[in-house]
TrEMBL record:
PROSITE patterns: ADENYLATE_KINASE (PS00113). Keywords: ATP-binding, Cytoplasm, Kinase, Nucleotide-binding, Nucleus, Pyrimidine biosynthesis, Transferase. GO terms for biological process: 'de novo' pyrimidine nucleobase biosynthetic process; pyrimidine nucleotide biosynthetic process. One of its GO terms (molecular function) is ATP binding. GO terms for cellular component: cytoplasm; nucleus. It comes from Salpingoeca rosetta (strain ATCC 50818 / BSB-021). This is UMP-CMP kinase. Monomer. Its cofactor is Mg(2+). It is found in: Cytoplasm; Nucleus.
Length: 196
């Protein structure tokens, strides 16, 4: 991490909304470091560490891992990066994530806005099921997706509502094509003062 306060943009939305897809383009264009909470948790699970089994259970059930574990992974990844712009994807996902971040990181970073990629459950499910052929993910199946959607509605939407009330939410209709979504995302980053 550089000496100046890290700038953070959060990326939220239902499973398969296209968060990772748009993050790749944001990284290429605006030179952010992309930190996906889901990717960090899957890597930790695959490392066979003492929390691996616990993390796997949460992922299979579409539940949210306790924040202490997730923040530790995000913080370590931020420390390891020699730059100032961070795109934190899939976090904060529930009140525990939100409160844990506020407590541990809130005053250490400059959180600019939340990119909310929004699409309906049917679109989201179809995208994840198509991705299943290549993703190898234990949770890209109908049963896990139902659970992930319930978690999204019950736990993540209230967090997005909180950000909206704070004027930090920037919503994009993610049911459009990848290129159409990208055009809207670029407008949001330009309005926030980021240059390509
Ligand atoms: N706008 C889009 N239109 C059609 N397909 C898309 C669009 N955006 C992403 N996809 C495809 O949908 C699948 C899910 O996209 P992606 O992995 O980016 O979603 P995500 O929001 O990061 O998912 P998760 O939260 O489950 O990790 C991928 O196969 C991707 O290629
Ligand atoms: N803040 C988070 C983010 C993710 N998880 C767990 O990982 C699963 C996959 O997340 P994706 O963002 O890659 O879809 C998710 O269903 C959770 O089980 C988490 O616990 N906390």
């Amino acid at each position: 991490m550089s000496d100046t306060k890290p700038v953070v943009v959060f990326v939220l939305g239902p499973p398969g909304a296209g968060k990772g897809t748009q993050c790749e383009r944001i990284v290429d264009t605006y030179k952010f470091k992309h930190l996906s909470a889901g990717d960090l948790l899957r890597a930790e699970r695959n490392s066979g560490s003492e929390t691996a089994e616990l993390i796997n259970g949460y992922i299979k059930e579409g539940k949210i891992v306790p924040v202490a574990i997730t923040i530790e992974l995000i913080h370590k990844a931020m420390e390891a990066h020699d730059g100032n712009l961070f795109l934190i994807d899939g976090f904060p996902r529930n009140a525990d994530n939100f409160d844990g971040w506020a407590e541990r990181m809130g005053d250490k970073v400059d959180a600019r806005f939340v990119l909310f990629l929004d699409c309906d459950e049917e679109t989201s499910t179809q995208r994840c099921l198509q991705r299943a052929a290549s993703s190898g993910r234990v949770d890209d199946n109908v049963e896990s997706l139902k659970k992930r959607h319930r978690t999204y509605e019950e736990s993540t939407m209230p967090v997005i509502d909180l950000f909206r009330k704070e004027g930090m939410e920037r919503r994009v209709d993610a049911s459009e094509s990848i290129d159409a979504v990208w055009e809207k995302v670029k407008e949001i980053f330009a309005e926030a003062g980021f240059t390509a």
